[in-house]
Amino acid sequence: MTAPGRILHPAAWWVWAATMGVAAVRTTNPMLLAFIAVVVVFVVAARRSAAPWSRSLAVFFRLGLIVIVIRVVVQVVFGYRLPGHVLFTLPQVPLPGWAAGVSIGGPVTLESVLQAAVDGLRLAVILLCFGAANSLASPYRLLRCLPTVLYEAGVAVTVALTFAPELVITIGSVRDARRLRGRPTRGIAGLRGLAIPVLEGALDRSLQLAASMDARGYGRRFAAPAHRRLATGATALGLLLVMLGVFGALDPGSVPSGGIPVLAVGAVLLAMGMTAGGRRSPRTRYRPDVWRLPEWGVSLSGCAVSGAFVIAGVVGVQGLQFTPYPLHAPTLPLLLCIGILAGLLPAVLAPSPRDPGYRETDGEMLVLAQREADPSVGVPRVARW
Amino acid sequence: MVIRFSDVSFSYSAADEPILRHVDLTIGEGEFCLVVGATGSGKSTLLGAINGMVPHFTGGRLSGTVTVDGRSTRDNPPRELADLVGMVGQNPSASFVTDAVEDELAYAMENLGVSPQAMRRRVEDTLDLLGLHELRHRPLLSLSGGQQQRVAIGAVLAAAPRVLVLDEPTSALDPAAAEEVLATLTRLVHDVGMTVVIAEHRLERVVPFADRIILVPGSGDELIVGRPQDVMAGSPVAPPLVDLARLAGWDPIPLSVRDARRLAEPLRLRLAGLEPGPPTTTTPASTPEPIAEAEHVSSVYVTVMALNQVDLRIHRGEVVAVMGRNGSGKSTLLGLLAGLRRPAKGRVRICGQVPGDLPPRKLIKLVGMVPQDAGVLLYCSSVEDECETADGECGLPPGTTAATLDRVLPGVPRRHHPRDLSEGQRLALALAVILAPAPPVLLLDEPTRGLDYPSKDRLVRLLRELAADGHSVVIATHDVELVARVADRAVVLAEGEVVSDGAAREVVCHSPVFAPQVAKVLAPEAWLTVDEVRAALAGSSR
Question: Are B247 and B364 in the same domain?
């Protein structure tokens, strides 16, 4: 099952991560949330490659912790005051009557702090799932899987993604230049006059990129006849509707007339656009990712987890939801824990990532900040012909 | 023949003088053509015209016809010629569309609709041809400059064009990486029969490989085309080897160090016993207190050690060259000295003060730095405006910067926008702005990138004058010929550590990578420049 040297289809990872995230949305039990987080981290640790982007999980982990802290602090300072076990009391600021539900200061109860922490934890776990998808398959690779009809849009997004690190470099050099001219680099005065050189640099780069793309055959004559443009439009609109539909299905009441009809219309449009546009496309694709058994295994294992949570919600399983009113320890529903374990399967099902020829220090560098600092590790022996 | 220019004239706008006038030129199958000329002479225009970038992308008026393999650029914009002509620019990272090596190689073929099987095979072939197979899955941003440039060449090569056009492909590379790229190109010409047209300022690197040289004299004058020996004999721009050959009266003119060494026996005998120039005095004893020093400095980028325990002392009136391959920590060291960043460990002092702690206004009176892209220092809309702003900012009497500019390079047009200046003029303006507050320490990062020989000569003279006035100059550079001509001392960095530090003559002459051409020809004696040889010969014959 694990063919070495193959990379799992990026969409499979994203489906798995998204479904794990859906499971996290459906529960407020901190034990279950923590369990999901552990499973996600385990799979990432087992199956990430050594590429720079696979470090992004740590970033998202830290971001999650910050979210929890912010959520708790906001609750302590501004939260809605319910009776409970008072931990301490903050000096209260009286607010006018129309600001009911909001307070500044006042008694802080253990219950409210717990509730806020669980809310924050849920957000943090969702962020962690997103981070997991990022570290297992780079967003670039996901973009490569876009249907042919959306090719142009995909190129635009790819270019935008590469642009961000370039922009960071440009801003750095402009700031350095200002300091060399003896101008302030901090505060409002430092910000003034930064925009124009940065934009100039950005414009220069986009012109060079456009020239390079043109010289390499982008947009050749056969590229976009009218019916293909129509197909592109249909696909994009279909995708948008599908997204809206999923949103509506997950959160009833947010989309008028419910999510399912919108989802259906979107899916039909999407299918039509893709079949019409994909036919007779003159572009070819280099090494398209394949979808085989491991891909099915990985994405279905995620679906199993979220399915278990959705069903548990419908049936009303004890312990799926947790409220600290009255104060009690959360229970651990065993059946759901076994359900979450299904999410571990990718750690075995997915082929182990191939080694992209990195050394440890090399993978760590992600030297967007400073390409100059790349000590050219792994330089091949100078080619002597 | 592959490329044919017939009666081509081009001007960027109707009002301008034509930059190319009545050009007739044919370039044959499998030729390695070198295009030389001063900056702004129209080299890039000539190259751009080959694949229709000029005028389809740049605008302007083109008359006459350019055909590539029978297809005219009049009817075919660059994208339609993508299967015939591959174009590689100066800055490879600006041309990348994807994020990984393999995808970048496949990009052009995907656009051309090459079948997946053929595409797979050609990507493998290209990886082998350019020695990129170990990097195939690496993200492009994690590659070094030389590797990036090879990927950029591979990316156009994979589409199997018949012509490869390169605009200064080695200007950002260290000597070893540049040789790597040039060796690749020669192999393409000899083994695959590719036609290569290349523009390059540092002739010493490319001339030995070229079959023909196209000299673009500029201002629309007629092109001079011929064998390298013939063109170089009368060329106003020439590598040091050619200058040496003219001095020694060698005929035919040797183009490679090997050829020159075989002719140099008599010259070596004449020079035997003569002293190569005045001994480069770097006697710290006379000036015990260094003007700038870095003590045990270490610096870290993300997790990479960019500098590790580096010690450097710079004395008054000294010109120090910092060399090393791309990413060895040169720019980081300069950044520390200029106070742009602080060391993670160790300390930096300029005239006894810590540059990282000083407010910018005080700092510029102590140390001035011109970064790699001198243009980022300039942000006003005209040269005049730039000078006045600089006076105001530094609290100098009005006219100081303008006077400095006249000293650096007379005759820079005052009403031009800094972006419209030539490379040399822009560097002069940046230098003037930095030198106006008279900082005792001047730092230059790759000052000769994109400079032609006359501008380089002027820079060398200026730096020597500054050093004579008591300024200390630190140059981070790949340009060994510049080091040979201007530096008293050379420091070589590798992986963030100092591997050698000493008199420039000893350091560069004993390194096969950093030795200038004259030193290679006249080894084992340590002669650095043609001027030294000329002066010694004149002295001995008197």
Answer: no
In a domain, A154, yes or no: yes
Domain carrying residue A236: 225-287
Same domain, A47 and A88: yes
Read off the amino acid at residue B344: A
Q: What b/e readout covers A308-328, taking b as 16+ CB neighbours within 10 angstroms?
A: bbeebeeeebebbebebeeee
Q: Are residues A315 and A338 in the same domain?
A: yes
Give the residue on B whose Cα is nearest the Cα of A374.
B327
- Do A247 and A179 belong to one domain? no
What is the amino acid identity at position B81?
L
Gap from A385 CA to chain B (nearest CA, Å): 7
Domain that holds residue B497: 316-341+353-511
Chains A and B form CB pairs within 8 A to the count of: 251
Contact between A284 and B113 using a beta-carbon 8 Å cutoff? yes
Task: Please indicate, yes or no, if residue A295 is contained in any of the structural domains.
Answer: yes
| In the block, residue with structure tokens 């339609």 | B80
* Closest-CA residue of chain B to A372: B327
* Binary contact (B111, A217; C-beta < 8 A): yes
CB contact under 8 A, B82 and A216: yes
The total of structural domains in chain B comes to: 3
B18 in the same domain as B118 = yes
CB contact under 8 A, B87 and A284: no
Quick one: residue B309, left, alpha or beta (phi over 0 = left, psi -120 to 50 = alpha)? Answer: left
Q: In terms of domains, do A278 and A245 share one? A: yes
The number of folded domains in chain A is 3
DSSP states of A99-124 as a string?
Answer: GTT--EEEEEEHHHHHHHHHHHHHHH
Looking at the structure, do residues B213 and B260 belong to the same domain, yes or no?
no
Closest residue on chain A to B155 (Cα): A216
For residue A220, is it within any domain? no
Residue A155: closest C-alpha in chain B: B97
Q: Smallest Cβ distance to A165: which of B141, B176, B335?
A: B141
CATH number (domain holding residue B12):
3.40.50.300
Same domain, B261 and B394: no
Whole-model pTM: value is: 0.76
- B530-to-A185, A191, A226, B389 alpha-carbon distances in Å: 45, 49, 66, 41
pLDDT digits (tens, 9 = 90+) for A298-331: 999 999 999 999 888 888 888 888 888 888 888 8
pLDDT (tens digit per residue) in A26-79 = 899 999 999 999 999 999 998 887 766 777 888 899 999 999 999 999 998 888
Q: A202: which chain B residues are within 8 Å (Cβ-Cβ)?
A: none
Binary contact (B95, A285; C-beta < 8 A): no
Q: Give whole-number Cα distances, B289 to A207, B37, B100, B293, B329, in Å.
A: 50, 45, 50, 10, 25
Chain B contacts of A165, Cβ < 8 Å? 141
**B183 and B259 share a domain?**
no
